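Posting this for the archive.
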Amino acid sequence: QVQLVESGGGSVQAGGSLRLSCEASGYTFSGTDMRWVRQAPGKGLEWISSIRGGGDRPIYEDSVKGRFTISRDNAKNTLYLQMNNLKTEDTAVYSCATGYIEGTYRGQGTQVTVSS
C-alpha cells in the first residue's frame, strides 16, 4: 500500500534551517507529482510547494518563496524540502502528499517549531 513517511522536523530558532524528507513506497514515485503541505495550530491545511514527477516545475506559496526549496531523488523515492531563514509563523506540522495541486495520499507529518 502507499506509504509516505516524513522526517527531519524539530525545534529551531528563527533564522535557522531544517531539511525535511519524505520517503515514499507502494507506488511509482518517479511518475507521480508531489507536494508539501502544512497545518499550523488551529488553522487549516495550507499548500506550500509542488514538484513534477521528473523534478521540474517547482512552485511555491508566496510566503515561502525564496526561503524554501523543494526537490526529489527518484532513485531513492524521496522528496525533500529545504527550509532556510525560518520564521515563527512557519511553525506547523509538515506533510508530503501525492499530486501537484491535489491528490489522494498524505503522510502523517513531522512537527516544525520555530521560536523567536
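The mean pLDDT is 97. Strands lie at 3-7, 10-13, 18-25, 34-39, 45-51, 59-60, 68-73, 78-83, 92-98, 110-115.
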